[in-house]
UniProtKB/TrEMBL annotation:
Domain SIAH-type, residue spans: 103-159
Keyword check for Protease: yes
Protein name: Ubiquitin-like protease family profile domain-containing protein
Pfam family of the protein (one): Peptidase_C48
GO biological process, any: proteolysis
Family: Belongs to the peptidase C48 family.
Protein keywords: Coiled coil, Hydrolase, Metal-binding, Protease, Zinc, Zinc-finger
The organism of origin for this protein: Pelagomonas calceolata
Domain Ubiquitin-like protease family profile: from-to ranges: 251-465
Coiled coil feature spans: 166-207
Length: 542
């Protein structure tokens, strides 16, 4: 039961109660009222006081208001003395009259609700606090009635009867609300972590190469391509390519390596090896992937790392390292980047398998000037493309070492077969040793305009060659006719321009930035998965 139900009802004043009591008592009440009536307000006394020294009694409020304007007794007109305006000092509570008033019997304020009790005005509060007719409210529903009615209601009120069940439900709801709040907090924390990471990614993306190129001062250009500034030795690992491969089998690219992609920077071995792999392997960047006739690119093209030719030409015969798991005679094209004297060029061995076929079959290749070879088998050759003509790299020397390599490979793999010998040797003069068997081709190609771009030119030759050599309808089909008749004099200078090379620097930087982002994203996903695994299990529900 709740007592709040009658809080809004202001209790009647003592004077209102007295008036009601006198009214209810009829003639006797009127008589009583006359004796307890203030001559100023004509109502029952409210805080009766008499005025010194006369002794007439008035309500305290009535006489105080009068004396603030007058200095006479309102009933008799006698002059009164109020020192220093202190009215309270001349008023004395009339205890006798107050006691009479307090002793008056008055009805309970809940008479209208059925209470028949009367009690002395002074004791009324005690009764009314516990009056059985005092309005009350059901503890669990909106029902309002007297205390007795509410007590009866609560015996049957479904909310009261089911109270304990409802309490348990409420406790459960509060519990669930707590869990929801916890979950929201966790979500917020995760959202914030995501936002922080996003900001990091955006900061990185903002540093993408396109913008860096603008920032890079022209003074950074080097006259000697060799000199590596302190920035180019920054060993911070940026990404590995291909990603997700053991470090020993992938190229680890550092911040310092990437600085070399700025205009005027000289590409080092790692950058050339990285992008050559991309050209061959990355389907999105290689036109080879779209040629339905070409088949599996990886099985047709092999790109050697740049230290292959360096070691080979130093007379290092341990070539197994570069051909482990690779049958070079099963390839259509072998891409060989050559770096010497701080200059890059590109050699391509075409159709080495044809050499092998002839060695096995003893097949004598049709001579190049016979008329009916046009649709004959593809012609083995070494194409050398150099962005500085023949001023730095010797095509003859490169061809010589590549012949040497092919022979070593053949002997290693086919010890029981007839050796194919491209050198003048014991069987010199036979058709098999026709030096035309492995032609050297030096087509005209775009030439570099500065000292630093040779690595990019070598990469671009590889890209353009693979596009044209294998795509349907392309002009450079590497067959016997092309090689023998046209290739040496063929002019490929329109393949691309210096502007394309500048563009290529930006493309490689963009790719590097993408690979770095991919690496960061992968690390973030790993971090999240670890967080999820480490999170404590949910609180069991109550
Ligand atoms: Zn009065
Ligand atoms: Zn009562
Ligand atoms: Zn109820």
């Amino acid at each position: 039961m709740a007592d709040a139900a009658d809080a809004a009802e202001a209790p009647p004043s003592k004077r209102q109660r007295l008036e009601a009591a006198f009214e209810a008592q009829g003639e006797e009440g009127r008589r009583k009222r006359q004796h307890l009536c203030c001559s100023m307000c004509l109502g029952p006394f409210d805080e009766p006081v008499f005025v010194k020294p006369l002794g007439n009694t008035y309500c305290k409020g009535c006489i105080t208001a009068w004396l603030s304007e007058n200095r006479t007794d309102p009933l008799t007109g006698t002059r009164l003395t109020v020192r220093e305006g202190n009215i309270a000092a001349v008023l004395v509570p009339n205890i006798a009259v107050q006691q009479i008033i307090d002793a008056q019997s008055v009805p309970c304020r809940y008479a209208a609700r059925g209470c028949e009790a009367w009690s002395a005005l002074g004791d009324l509060e005690a009764h009314e606090a516990n009056c059985p007719c005092k309005p009350s409210k059901c503890a669990r529903c909106a029902f309002v009635g007297s205390r007795l009615e509410v007590a009866a209601h609560e015996q049957a009120c479904p909310f009261v009867v089911l109270g304990p069940v409802l309490d348990a439900q409420n406790a459960r709801i509060r519990n669930l609300e707590g869990e929801v709040r916890d979950a929201k907090r966790r979500l917020t924390a995760e959202h914030e972590a995501t936002q922080r990471l996003k900001a990091r990614l955006e900061a990185l993306e903002a540093q993408r190469p396109g913008d860096l190129a603008v920032v890079s001062p022209p003074a950074a250009r080097r006259t000697r391509a060799t000199r590596a500034g302190p920035a180019e030795t920054d060993p911070t690992l940026v990404f590995q390519y291909p990603p997700g491969v053991a470090a020993s089998d992938s190229i680890v690219v550092t911040r310092g390596d990437l600085r070399r992609l700025e205009p005027g920077g000289y590409l080092n071995e790692k950058l050339v090896d990285f992008y050559l792999k991309v050209i061959v392997a990355d389907a999105r960047r290689s036109p080879l992937a779209e040629d339905p006739d070409f088949g599996n690119m990886a099985s047709a093209v092999h790109a050697f790392p740049s230290d292959f030719f360096t070691m080979l030409s130093a007379g290092n015969e341990r070539v197994e390292r570069w051909t482990r798991g690779v049958d070079v005679f099963a390839k259509k094209f072998l891409l060989v980047p050559v770096v010497e004297d701080l200059h890059w060029s590109l050699a391509i061995v075409c159709h080495p398998g044809e050499l092998a076929k002839r060695a096995i079959a003893g097949h004598i290749y049709p001579t190049v000037d016979s008329a009916d070879h046009e649709d004959g088998p593809a012609r083995p050759c070494v194409i050398h493309m150099d962005s500085r003509g023949s001023s730095l790299h010797s095509a003859r020397k490169i061809e010589k070492w590549l012949r040497c390599f092919l022979e070593m490979e053949w002997r290693k793999r086919h010890a029981g077969e007839e050796p194919f010998t491209l050198w003048a040797g014991p069987r010199a003069g036979s058709a098999i040793m026709n030096p035309a068997d492995l032609l050297l081709a030096r087509p005209k190609v775009p030439q570099q305009m500065n000292s630093a771009d040779s690595g990019l030119y070598a990469l671009r030759y590889a890209q353009e060659f693979l596009t044209r050599a294998v795509c349907r309808g392309a002009p450079l089909a590497v067959n016997g006719r092309d090689v023998s008749l046209d290739f040496r004099d063929h002019d490929f200078e329109a393949w691309f321009t210096g502007r394309d090379i500048a563009e290529m620097r930006r493309d490689i930087k963009k790719l590097a930035a993408d690979l770095e982002l991919e690496k960061i994203r992968a690390a973030y996903r790993r971090e999240q998965a670890e967080d999820a695994a480490a999170r404590p299990p949910r609180r069991p529900r109550q």
